[in-house]
Amino acid sequence: MAIDTNSYRMKLRNRQARVNLVPLIDVIFTILIFLMVTSSFQVATDSSAGKPDVSQSNGNSEYYLIPVAGLKTVTVNGVDMSSDIRNSAIAVHTRVIDEGEIIIKPKDGTITITAPAGMSPEKAVSIPQG
């Protein structure tokens, strides 16, 4: 009996390689778990919440400049202070930054400020100098 090598070759050429994904996923998750367990994480000691640290600033400025492209409206405790806008920027008092709340909506070109208790809207924002 003769061995048909041509049909065997055709069968090998037509056979496509198959990769079993289950062991591959198992190995990837095992490596991931190993890396997570052996990693060391540190808690950030810097307690900044996006606010500037006054002790690290240069000079003794009472106001910080907040520029917003296309700034049209500034509201402080419900009072419109848009007249203080110069070159799409407003100067905001440091106490407002530390104790108050500032909501910036760049798409609308608005800034809404809630000043700390006892601070007038005229003191909370100012016309930018320079």
UniProtKB/TrEMBL annotation:
It comes from the Archaea. GO terms for molecular function: transmembrane transporter activity. Its main location: membrane. The keyword Phosphoprotein does not apply. Signal peptide: none annotated. It is found in: Cell membrane. InterPro entries: ExbD (IPR003400). The chain crosses the membrane at residues 21-41. Pfam families: ExbD. It comes from Methanobacterium subterraneum. It is a single-pass membrane protein. This is Biopolymer transporter ExbD. One of its GO terms (cellular component) is plasma membrane. Keywords: Cell membrane, Membrane, Transmembrane, Transmembrane helix. The keyword Nucleotide-binding does not apply.
